[in-house]
Structure formats: C-alpha cells, structure tokens
Amino acid sequence: MSRLFMFEKPLGMRDSLPDIYETKQHVRSALEGEIRQWGYQFIGTPTLEYYETVGTASAILDQQLFKLLDREGHTLVLRPDMTAPIARVAASKLLKDDLPFRLAYSANVFRAQQREGGRPAEFEQVGVECIGDGTVSADGEMIALAISSLKEAGLKDFQLSVGNAGFVRELFLQILGTEERVQELTRFLYEKNYVGYREHVKSLPLSSIDSQRLLAFLELRGGPEVIGRALDLVENEEGKEAVLQLERLWEIITDYGAASHIKFDLTLVSHMSYYTGILFEIYSGKVGFPIGNGGRYDGLLQKFGKSTSATGFAFRLDRLIEALGELDETVPVSCILFSAERRKEACLLANKQRTSGQRVVLQDISGVKNIDACTSKYNDVTFLVGKAGKEPDHD
Q: What are 325-334's pLDDT values in tens digits?
C-alpha cells in the first residue's frame, strides 16, 4: 500500500469550497421551499444503517456499499440511498393509518467507486417519497412536482424521459419466456447499448414476428403517439395495462400544465431494481448524466413487513448545479474595516446592518496585509479607521 499524501482525500470524496457551498445552499433552499409548498414534510435518517436491513433492501450493488463493523460485530453500511431508509421508517413508525404519507429529505449518500471511475463516492440528494398511494395520480404528482421544483431552482432547459418498468418486463417475459433471458436483454437497455441489443435479439431462437417486435420496441420514443404503437406490440393484459397507465399519466401531466417537458421513452429501465411501474429520468442539455430520477416501487416496503405502494424521486444536487451553470443572483457581502479605537462603533454598525438582513464582515485593519485585495472581495467597504470623523488613508 502506497503512502498517502498529506492533502489526499479518500477515493471519490470532494471538498466544497465557499463558492460551491453557497451555491448548493441556494439551490437546496429553492428545492426544499417548493417541496414544502406541495405539502411534503422533511425527515432525517441515520447516516449508518444495518446491512441486513437497509443494505440488502437497497438497489445499490453490494460492491458499492461502504461497510464497517460495530462493537457487537454487526455489519453496518453508510446509507447508499434515501429510499430504503425512508421505507424502513415508514414501515416501522408511520404506516398505522390508511393514509398516504408525503415525506421529503435532503441528505448525503455514499457509494464506493472504482479507482478508474472518477465519480463522487459521496453526494447530496434532495427528494420526496409518496407512500401509500397506488394511483397514477400519485405518479403524475411526482413528475409535476419535479418539474415545478426545477423551475423554482432556476433551471429552464430540461426534459423528463418517462417509461414503465412493468411494460418492459411484461413484453420481454411474454416473448422470451424466462426471467434469466429477460434480465440478459434488459442489461443492454440499462447500458444504452442499442447496437448490442439488436445483435442479441438477432441471435435469439425466436420467430421472425417476435424478433421484429423486440426490434420495433426500440422505436417507442416520442410523444403520446407511442402509446398506440406500444399497445400493438404487447399482447397480455398486464402489459397493456402498463401502457394505459402512461396514457392516463399524459392526461394528468397535461392538467398540471407540465406536458411540454415530457417525452415518452418506453425503453427506459433503471439500475434501481425495485422500480415496478412508471419511472422517469431528468436530463439537462449541459449534463451528460441524469440530474434526477424517480418512479414507482410498490414492492420495497414488503422487505420491511408492510405491503403498500409507493413512488418518489430524487435530484442529484451536484449535477443540478452543473446544469444551472453560474447563478444570476449572488448575495452581496459588505465589509467594515476598523481600527482599535473605533471597534465599538464598528460593532454597532455591523449589528445594525445584520439586523436589517445584510451580510457583513467585521475586520480589524491590523489583521490585513493587503488592503486592496481585501476590499476587492466585497460588494461594499466601510472604513472606520483612526479617530471618529477622520478620513482613512486609502483611496
């Protein structure tokens, strides 16, 4: 093992310097404010969870979990996502009434990365979970809230790709016959390896009609017109119902006035294996990865002893900030430079300005070596130097 450098950080961990920290706070505040406006209540869960509960329930791969042992020998994990911990809380403490719960969170999650990956191992998610509502209206609410929150954060250029995991599974299972074959073909979709998908389909021992159906499946992208084409491909009732859910979803999103941000992509699948129905990913033109994703996960709470439906979404705060670029608004900060004999006057002035909502730095001039460098950092500078009434010796 090579010796670590003094300033080296663990793989995938990042520092947030003042500018980026301030930006995160600004965006986080906008998202949280909009989420609260929709009636969601924020919740906190431990950073550490038991591997046997949240670790195994999470859809994150085992090799991406940070594991450690407590003093009793139990295996713990740093939470790899927030959906599984909230499912644990909901199943154990909240689901005593037959009412949907609308919960929200803003928290860091942890996923171990390979050295060549170059991706963060710790990042912040802001998201919501609607637990106990199995209607398509709840799925529509997720999408409408996601769109509204992004707009409130200042993002204009974005699009949601919407699909249905149940449709993909039913179509593939009907044609391929076994779960193993379904998973093998689905992997090409997750990797977005459409060339590999086509080659794999051609290699399967299928009739020409079934092969053509699987190839035509790749073309199910666009507006509401793809719904009719999807209905023509799938034959069983479960698959048709999954498609008709998307038709009802389109009507709901239209009622919210948010349809302009929606495109259907019925080839959409997720690495989060607990998704069972409508799911979506959020893209912005400036970022090569999804800035958020969500969907229905009706089977997850069964792992915690409760059988109920649920849906939700999460934003990746780092990717959202990248999509936003430089924020138009910066909070002005003033500086009061003072000498020892005018300290009391400076403190009174700073208190008055802070009470009025201003951000103020109070700086003893004897602690500043470069006056010009100091004053250039702030929007406004007040000099209280020397005896009261005397002008400072500075331009």
A: 876 556 788 9
